[in-house]
Amino acid sequence: MTGPQQPPFGDVPGAGDRTMPIDKSTRRPLPSRGHLGPPPPASPPPPLPPSWPPAGPVRRARPVKTWVALGVTGLSLIVSLVSVVMLVSHFAGSSPAIPAAAPLTLPPNYAPPPRGAAPPPKEANLVGSRQLGDILGTRDDMEAFFKTPIWPPGDYFFLSSLTSDHPECGGVAAPTQKQGYRWADYDTTRSQFFMDWDPAQGPDFTRVPLLKGMQQATTFDSSAAAAEVVSGESGRWSKCTDKTVTVHTEEGDEQYQVAAPSFVDGVLAVTLTRPGPEPWSCQHVLTSRRNVAIDVRVCSASVGSRGVEWAQQLAGRVPGQ
User: Fold this and answer.
1) Cα–Cα distance between 53 and 219 in angstroms, integer?
2) Residue 176's CB: how many other CB atoms inside 10 A?
3) For residue 240, is it left (φ>0), alpha (ψ between -120 and 50) or beta?
4) Contact (Cβ atoms closer than 8 angstroms) between residue 179 and residue 170
């Protein structure tokens, strides 16, 4: 039995039949099921990007008057510059000529130093700081010389704080004063303070000692430098001859009447008298051996020449003589 023929791919027009259906009344193709109605309108084009950089204010051309003013100003500057140059040239040409410097002449007795001259040789075997203790000696040495018990002396490795009211006189009143050694460039120094005491009664620092002394040994970089300290202090000590010098100490002020200094057996010595109800005197002595300066002061009721004699003992201990 034969029925109506079905399209090979169902009832979808155009699926199996490749012919487009046509409206018989208008003779125009019918729209397919996949596209009903007129086509959608086209979407508007995207807006154009703004221009970059944004347009700035419109620059106006300079008016003619502005350019004229600028030209006149520039011309005035040029004229002024030319005038200044002409004035400078005029005055420079009319100024008197500077006389030429006289040639450098040397004195007729001038002799240039020899080339390659070696510096003077350094003194050999100079006394060092470790040898100062042997020069100052021990308490036994002091007791043997002064014939009295000595309180153990303390060692100091720097200048003291003692000052006086006459700094122009150097260290005339006592050893270890900075105003006595500020004139020289010393290397090292060592000093001791000593006094007598009674071992049976023990130390009594409130009593007036029968013997009191200071001794100092100082090294320099040459024997000439040490000797120069002695010669320099002799002139400064002389400035205080017959004057009263006040020494400022931590315990209070001490006044001394200064006699005329002199050299005794090559040793600079000066006698200092301390006024008071119980006056006593000191002998301050300064000498040198090799590169060491020996500075000693011995005080007692009748000091005599013990300062000079003690300083000579210390000087005799300097090695290498």
Assistant:
1) 87
2) 23
3) alpha
4) yes
Q: What is the DSSP letter of 16?
A: S
Radius of gyration of the CA atoms of the chain, in A = 57
Please report the pLDDT score of residue 16 as a whole number: 43
281: which 2 tokens? 């005197």
The H or E element spanning position 134 is helix 132-136
Whole-angstrom distance, CA of residue 211 vs CA of residue 65: 109
Q: How confident is the model over 84-137, as pLDDT tens digits?
A: 667 656 655 555 555 665 566 666 776 766 777 676 677 888 999 999 999 999
Pairing of strands 188-195, 163-164: unpaired
* Residue matched to tokens 């090695």: 319
- What is the spatial distance between Cα 131 and Cα 251, in angstroms, rounded to a whole number? 31
Four-CA torsion 148, 150, 156, 157, nearest 10 degrees? 50
Distance (Å) of CA 191 to CA 9, 63, 81, 175, 266? 135, 97, 79, 9, 22
Helices then strands, each counted (H, E), the chain: 6, 12
